[in-house]
Amino acid sequence: MQIPEKQLLILAIEDYLRRHHEQELLNSINEAYADGLDPSEQVMLEGMRQHHRHLAATLAVGCVAIYNPQNNRLSRSDAPY
Prior knowledge:
The protein is α+β, with helices and mostly antiparallel strands and 81 residues long. Helices cover 63% and strands 12% of the residues. It contains two helices and two strands; from the N terminus they run ααββ. Strands 1-2 form a two-stranded antiparallel ribbon. It is flat, with a radius of gyration of 23 Å. The relative contact order is 0.06. The model has no long low-confidence stretch (mean pLDDT 84).
């Protein structure tokens, strides 16, 4: 594969900048969550967990979600597995 030196340098710099940006973003996220959740976030998280458990239980009873790649959607099927 023949890549001109200038183009190779540009690709290397772009890759370095992308990785550097991703690392900065990860560091920011880690710093934001380093002290754990405050009480209001804990209440919200528990509510989301309960809601997710309810959704999972509702979907698991007698139906199957089927992915249709032609329209990029999930549809429900009540047919047995």
